[in-house]
Description:
The longest helix has 14 residues, at 32-45. The chain has helices at 32-45, 90-103, 176-179; strands at 22-26, 52-55, 58-61, 65-70, 76-78, 81-83, 109-115, 122-125, 138-144, 147-153, 159-164, 169-173, 180-184, 194-200. The chain has one domain (22-200): Alpha-ketoglutarate-dependent dioxygenase AlkB-like (Jelly Rolls), CATH 2.60.120.590. The protein contains three helices and 14 strands. The protein starts with 21 loop residues before the first strand and ends in a 6-residue tail after the last strand. It has a six-stranded antiparallel sheet with strand order 1-12-9-14-7-4. It is α+β, with helices and mostly antiparallel strands. The mean pLDDT is 92. Bound molecules: 2-oxoglutaric acid and fe (ii) ion (FE2). Residues 125, 127, 182 line the site of fe (ii) ion.
Amino acid sequence: MGASGLSAADSFGPNLARQDGELYYLEQFIPAAEADHWLETLLAGLAWRTESIVVAGRAVPVPRLVCWYGDAEAHYRYAGVDHAPEPWTPGLALLRQRVESRCARRFNSVLGNLYRDGEDAMGWHADREPELGPWPFIASLSFGAERRFDLRHNRSREILNLPLAHGGLLLMGGMLQHHWRHRVPRQPGIRAPRINLTFRAILPPP
Ligand SMILES: O=C(O)CCC(=O)C(=O)O
Ligand SMILES: [Fe+2]
């Protein structure tokens, strides 16, 4: 068993990171017709809002919409902002169950990102806030437009590109957040929206 707790018996396929972390992609984790239903349900039913981060003393809106759901205690500091979660919707609770049983992992929260079109994006970052624990395990579920997901190794600068498709589940674990950054780049030709749900386990404050 690796540091992430993923056991060799789990059938996630090859580790796409190969070194310094664990990265698995399960294509069509949610079959296409069902994924269509989720895309509509989540677009219409979640509390999407704009969020600003402070850059050089100024509030700058991030180029996407976000939402945050979870168990009541799962507060999360993200980009310098404290998020109290909204309570689970029935749909998100169902998706959480599906993801949990596939990963044999528990999650107490989910960060949603809505990329309205190819102009929306997320810059290079790692998800390594202390409340995610020493080896953050994140399950990332995508619906809607296929978007490119890039990873860059901090030291070697090796780049990996993965297309994240409708219904696909990406798993990040082990030392991945310590050694790699990731992003969702702008893809100006894309007109359709994409929703990404990152299921996370937030530890209680020390
Ligand atoms: O949209 C994605 O696929 C990635 C989202 C992400 O990296 C994050 O929420 O931390
Ligand atoms: Fe991330």
